[in-house]
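Possible regression after last week's pipeline update?

I re-ran a chain I had predicted before the update to compare outputs. Posting the input and the new output here so someone can diff against the archived version. Not blocking, just want to make sure nothing changed silently.
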Amino acid sequence: MLRTIVGGFLMGTADLVPGVSGGTIALVLGIYERLVASIKEGSSALGYLARFRWDKASEHLRRVEWVFLIPLLVGILLAVVTLAGILDHQLEERPTLLAGLFLGLVVGSVVIAWSRIGRRDSSKVVIAVLVAVALFLLLGLGEGQASAEPTVLAFVGAGALAICAMILPGISGSLILLMLGMYAPALSAVRDRDLVTIAALALGAIVGLALFSQVLNWALRNHHDPVLAALVGLMAGSTRVLWPWPDGVFSAEIGAPGEDWLGVLVVVILGGVAVYLVSRLAGERATVSEPQSS
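New output (post-update):
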């Protein structure tokens, strides 16, 4: 349980950082597929509850790994409560070094995730490269422009897309909101305690998570290696917003290395080593077997 709480803490820390996904940490820790499966069972229970099928809802709720899921959520909440202010300050004071650290974390995650593909052939390489290039170009589009007063429906849609990104390795929900031009309005709604807007975002997140978790769980069970190759591509493509120069984290602009390149190189290496150590501490081997269909 303690190890699961620590894993949740690491996931929560990642979700606080623009460009870094908690899904990446879950993949490195070897708990990603368990997490998706539990979310899928919970969403199925909600679907049956909405249709007043109490027996079926109860059946799916019993399949949720609560002993795993609750400590994980506790760890995520602990990270959000204790580190939000610290990370925000470091992003302002040391954006280049912090970007280098996160770049090292993601690069290390790419290597470990790739090693977990059962059959690493040319088709998996093509999938990973295509997804990486597509995301790299998409992130270069920069921040989208939203209307002065987005509608409630727009917030529902933004919440659905953002939550889908949060459970995918390599792309964060905050990046999706930024690209949609909804990041600032969402932050303003939280700051101003706009309950209608917050409810719309929450509704979108619930609907998006319920639908997407079903698809993702099915894909992992039936097409494990191609899906994992695509997830590797997502992580690789996300490095665009973690390139330290010129502006550090949260910039899609690519510039030449600055005078601080040596210090950045050191923290990149440290980030990669940290991912390797976390993976080893999680008790995972270099390759995991394909999950069995239920």
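Follow-up from reviewer: compared with the archived run. Residues 66-93 form the longest helix (28 residues). Marking as no regression found.
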